[in-house]
Write a sequence for this structure.
């Protein structure tokens, strides 16, 4: 598959995944179409040799595993981890605001969002809605307005002369999006959600919307940009790009080796939740896969986790924000991320292993170390490594504008990542 086709596939996935719930739904659909059996954590499992399975938690995190050939069962799991969430603006429980004749919704900032790019964008709304049916049952459904229904207008420069010298954004007062004129006194968001549920799910007998988890998102579609199509621009590249690459690699692998994907929610806010990387989801699934503790520990000590999360490419206008010897470039291959304070879980052995994989797959590879006078971000890698004791390498595709409403990657790098991860899933021997 050409990188053009891969990027279109990625664009379609991101466009259909405005929230972690939608992303997980898309992943489930692709896996079940490929023959993976959907397991329920609330029931007993009867796993078959060479079986392929998936399990979700909270509708926003997913684990998929392929048991491989029986003779390879104890060679170690080839694991790839990523996260389904991205920084965004989430709607508050009682969000309705009526100001100056306009109807707005109060929001809170989820994760470390770059806020300035959210202004003057065409925004829509999506997420999960929980409701009571006319028969008195509780149910949940995903909704997505898709069309632009809101915007956050900037204050004109004439009224804010110092804005280009830097003005702090107040998340409480500056960010509530404008949705409409106050055309109807006392209008409630839950009333609109009921109408949207009936439109998207006409078979649902909705009596009352009780609660929701909703996020605003930019309606602008992903695009390949640049004079020569060198770049890929989209929302939520961090980290749906890695989810897409990991899943594509798994589905393109030959199925001979035991492999596992783990895509968890809440990474952007620390991963401490029932469905986050710092929760018990992966450990619970592994315990059911291998109930014997000693056997499970032996398997994990033969295993490797590739933690895939985007890396910072060196920005041409801000090159001084990088260590001079560690400036990853777009379209130059995946980046090995290293930090001596264990903000990344890479060590010399796992780094060498990933370099070896890239060499075998004919994929270029780079490395990143944060400047010694700057703080370093982190990933699910150190969290998972500390919980499981599994050897881990942190890697990712280089990007610009991480945590913006629109991020930028190289148009060739997704193909590079898929290629090396496919080779990893097919590798008969780990370190």
């Amino acid at each position: 598959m050409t990188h053009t086709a891969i990027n279109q596939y990625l664009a379609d996935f991101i466009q259909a995944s405005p929230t972690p719930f939608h992303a997980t739904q898309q992943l489930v659909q692709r896996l079940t179409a490929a023959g993976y059996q959907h397991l329920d954590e609330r029931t007993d499992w009867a796993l078959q040799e060479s079986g392929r399975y998936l399990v979700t938690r909270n509708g926003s995190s997913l684990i998929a595993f392929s048991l491989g050939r029986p003779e390879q069962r104890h060679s170690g799991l080839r694991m790839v981890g990523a996260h389904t969430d991205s920084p965004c603006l989430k709607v508050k429980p009682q969000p309705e605001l009526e100001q100056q004749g306009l109807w707005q919704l109060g929001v809170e900032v989820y994760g470390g969002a770059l806020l300035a790019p959210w202004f003057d964008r065409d925004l829509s709304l999506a997420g999960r809605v929980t409701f009571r049916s006319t028969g008195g049952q509780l149910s949940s459904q995903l909704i997505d307005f898709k069309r632009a229904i809101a915007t956050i207008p900037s204050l004109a420069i004439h009224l804010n002369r110092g804005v280009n010298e830097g003005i702090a954004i107040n998340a409480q007062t500056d960010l509530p999006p404008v949705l409409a004129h106050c055309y109807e006194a006392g209008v409630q968001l839950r009333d609109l959600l009921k109408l949207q549920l009936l439109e998207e799910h006409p078979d649902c007998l909705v009596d009352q919307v009780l609660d929701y988890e909703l996020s605003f998102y930019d309606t602008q579609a992903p695009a390949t940009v640049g004079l020569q199509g060198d770049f890929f621009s989209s929302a939520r590249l961090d980290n749906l790009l890695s989810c897409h690459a990991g899943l594509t690699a798994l589905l393109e692998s030959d199925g001979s080796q035991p492999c596992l994907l783990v895509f968890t929610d809440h990474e952007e806010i620390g991963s401490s939740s029932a469905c986050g990387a710092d929760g018990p989801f992966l450990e619970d699934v592994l315990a059911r896969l291998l109930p014997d503790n000693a056997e499970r520990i032996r398997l994990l000590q033969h295993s490797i986790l590739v933690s895939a999360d985007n890396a910072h490419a060196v920005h041409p206008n801000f090159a001084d924000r990088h260590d001079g010897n560690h400036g990853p470039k777009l379209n130059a291959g995946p980046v090995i991320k290293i930090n001596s304070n264990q903000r990344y879980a890479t060590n010399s052995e796992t780094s060498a292993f990933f370099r070896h994989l890239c060499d075998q797959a004919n994929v270029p590879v780079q490395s990143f170390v944060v400047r010694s006078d700057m703080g370093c971000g982190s990933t699910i890698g150190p969290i998972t490594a500390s919980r499981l004791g599994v050897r881990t390498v942190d890697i990712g595709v280089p990007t610009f504008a991480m945590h913006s409403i629109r991020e930028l990657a190289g148009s060739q790098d997704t193909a590079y990542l898929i290629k090396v991860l496919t080779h990893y899933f097919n590798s008969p021997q780990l370190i």
